[in-house]
Amino acid sequence: MLVGELANTKSSNLEEMKTRIWPMLADKIHANTIITGMSWSWVEPEEGKYDFSIADAAIENAKAA
After folding, report:
1. What are the phi and psi torsion angles at 37 (to 5°)?
2. Structural element, H or E, at residue 63
3. What are phi and psi of 53, to 5 degrees?
4. Residue 2: left if φ>0, alpha if ψ -120 to 50, beta else—which one?
5. What angle do CA 42, 25, 17 make, to 5 degrees?
6. Contacts of residue 54, Cβ cutoff 8 Å, sequence gap at least 6
7. What pTM value is reported for the model?
8. Could you give the maximum distance between any two Cα atoms of the chain, in Å?
9. Which of 2, 25, 54, 65 is the least buried, fewest Cβ under 10 Å from its Cβ?
10. How far is CA 31 from CA 27, 42, 53, 64, in A?
């Protein structure tokens, strides 16, 4: 495994991840595993209401890189 770790809130900016971070991780350091933070408030912005769109988009963008 070639692992990279991102700053805690880096994954919240999906556009920067897609255009800058994923290409760098894939092309420059050839990482195949990434650890990143995912704030619970992104998943449950309102008590009892769940939104996995940021997590889902991050996974899809990583697969595309």
Report:
1. -75, 150
2. helix 53-64
3. -65, -40
4. beta
5. 35
6. 11, 12, 14, 38, 42, 43
7. 0.70
8. 41
9. 2
10. 8, 25, 24, 14
